[in-house]
Amino acid sequence: MALYKRIRDLREDSDKTQTEVAEFLGTTAQYYGKYEKGERELPFIRAIQLADYYGVSLDYPAERKKFKNSYSLNEDEQNLIYSWQCLSERDKGKVEYLIEQLLEEQAKRK
Length: 110
Prior knowledge:
Number of helices: 6
Helix content: 55-70%
């Protein structure tokens, strides 16, 4: 499962050892190593702890997000994205054009 590759990548990107991460989780390096290899199922609470430890969303290790550092969106922004996803490709093009026009006008006013 991809989760195991991602938790290893997160650890390596943070220049942490398995021992350091295991100590944070309150377990042994051997036991933690089994999570990274996919030999042991990672409990949900541990996944939460690791996401907090690395400062990422749970969606990143689960490969529901492509990038580690995604922006946190407020409710209005989430609704806007949902509305965008409901549009046809043609209507998305219209919205993109309008946004470009608005940005150009805003830049002129500055």
